[in-house]
Specification:
Radius of gyration: 19 Å
Largest sheet: none
Structural class: mainly alpha
Number of strands: 0
Order of helices and strands: H
Distance between the termini: 61 Å
Length: 44
């Protein structure tokens, strides 16, 4: 069983990891969207 301090550190790490994953995800979504736009422009 974790004590409160360890649990707090663990939660902070999880939040940091989650934030990093969200950044990476949103960046890749933006890249995918911009590539789709390029495709649309090249086709038209």
């Amino acid at each position: 069983m974790l004590n409160k301090e360890d649990f707090g550190k663990y939660l902070e790490q999880m939040e940091a990891i989650e934030a990093a994953m969200i950044k990476v995800y949103s960046r890749s979504v933006l890249l995918a969207k911009s590539q789709d736009l390029k495709r649309v422009f090249w086709v038209s």
